[in-house]
Amino acid sequence: SLFRGLKFLTTVNDLRQLPQEGLEVAFAGRSNAGKSSAINTLADHTRLAFVSKTPGRTQHINYFDFGGDRRLVDLPGYGYAEVPAAVRAHWEKLLGQYLMTRQNLIGLVLIMDARRPLTERDRNMLDWFRPTGKPVHCLLTKADKLSRQAQTAALRAVEKEFEEDSLITVQLFSSLKKQGVETIEEIVGGWFSA
Ligand code: GDP
């Protein structure tokens, strides 16, 4: 399986230092949405991606390697309230530039807490990325915190928002319960083999 072989590659602190080669899939999300946990769960490796004790402090970009010049890019979490507004705005601008211009990027995985998906900042990310015509997969994580019924309702609500948009797919996910692993494997695997 694709994610099982994931290995840490490098950390970059500046978008101007991004590697030239390879194809990449980016993971983005609001701080604390569960992005690091999702990467660890997918890789079946408890400490591959650093689970933040102080969300929003780590503003570097971690590259992981799937093998075969295929990468996973762990983007800095956005929107953490205790980061100064100017720093936050600076990083969000860089994220926007990355999403809009990065040639190596073939798809975006947007991590959102299933209990509060599609915040204003999540929508900004989607708006920046939409013109590229590349696919987005929304991971509604921490699904275990919702009842079955509420999970279905959350999924339907987000799917409904994007029913006109064939480039956006949505699924439920839980790192705690390892729920939804096969679905994202299939989607991201499909991007790499397209
Ligand atoms: P990040 O800032 O997006 O990388 O978020 P983290 O992966 O660091 O997770 C933030 C917090 O949410 C941590 O306390 C995690 O243990 C918790 N968390 C992440 N994923 C899940 C999940 O699927 N279920 C539950 N119950 N908690 C989760």
Q: What count of helical segments does DSSP give?
A: 5
Termini separation (Å)?
A: 17 Å
CATH topology name, in short, is Rossmann fold
Number of domains: 1
Radius of gyration: 15 Å
**CATH H-tier superfamily:** P-loop containing nucleotide triphosphate hydrolases
Largest sheet, in brief, is: 7 strands, mixed
Q: Please tell me what the overall shape is.
A: globular
SSE ordering: EEHEEHEHEHEH
How are the strands of the biggest sheet laid out side by side? 1-3-4-2-5-6-7
CATH architecture: 3-Layer(aba) Sandwich
Helix content: 25-40%
- Poorly predicted parts: none
Number of strands: 7
Strand content is 15-25%
Query: By helix and strand content, what is the structural category?
Result: alpha/beta
CATH class: Alpha Beta
Walk me through this protein's architecture.
- With 194 residues, the protein is of the alpha/beta class.
- The chain has one domain: Rossmann fold (3-Layer(aba) Sandwich), CATH 3.40.50.
- 32% of the residues lie in helices and 23% in strands.
- It is built from five helices and seven strands; from the N terminus they run E-E-H-E-E-H-E-H-E-H-E-H.
- Strands 1-3-4-2-5-6-7 form a seven-stranded mixed β-sheet, with helices on both faces.
- Strand 3 and strand 4 form a beta hairpin.
- Helix 2 (85-101) runs parallel beside helix 3.
- The model has no long low-confidence stretch (mean pLDDT 91).
- This is Probable GTP-binding protein EngB.
